[in-house]
Amino acid sequence: MKKYKLIMSDLDNTLLPVITQDKFVTIWFTDVAKKFYDYHMNQAIALNAINEGCRAMLLNNGRLRNDEVFYRTAVKASGYSREKLAEVLTDYYATTFQNVKNIIEVNPFAPQIAKLIKEKADYTAIATMPLFPLDACDTRMRWTGISADMFDLVTSFDQSSYAKPNPLYFQEILDRFGVKPEETLMIGNDVREDMIPCATLGIDVFLVTNHMITHDLDYSRFRQGTYEELIDFLIHNS
Fold first, then answer.
1. In principle, which of 142, 164, 177, 181 could form an S-S bond with 123, CB 3.0–4.6 Å?
2. At 21, phi and psi to the nearest 5?
3. Strand partners, 141
């Protein structure tokens, strides 16, 4: 009998190491700005709208999906239509979003971890910050040798109504599969965004220390270890 009905894993800096989050944001905004220029749109207005839309998703109260909150906010802030904004972002994610790959480190353990997660649970989910469309999530996953179709759920912005570190983001995933917190494991690298909200709900956790982000918070109470130690835990304790 499997110990967990659901195993969730974070993506960025857990399965997908990013050299620095600041560089990720810089490249993202620079390339999106160029894309707006290509579409003869005011860059400052469009970028401000995107920024406001992302902020609104982070504060989403669950009444609407994140994508609906994003576009409603961005349209209001820019005056551009949802269709126009979506056209530009879809083009960006299909093309120059690949530039982000330049700051991604190779994680040879990711495919094995993904395979073990699939073997050790009834349901699997990539619990990544749900600010991106699914295609963008899948692109990032493929950079580390896995893909969205390997999991039952990837929390893209059209699949979630909350964002980390709101515990309701994780509760929404549990509700989707009809599982209890004590039947669930969350794998992540961020103490504030992954460990604390999951522990608050009673979800079992594993803190990956290779690219750990602590926010100067105490993490001594959480099960933790390297990629190799996570693999050993999944093999022998799940």
1. 177
2. -70, -30
3. none
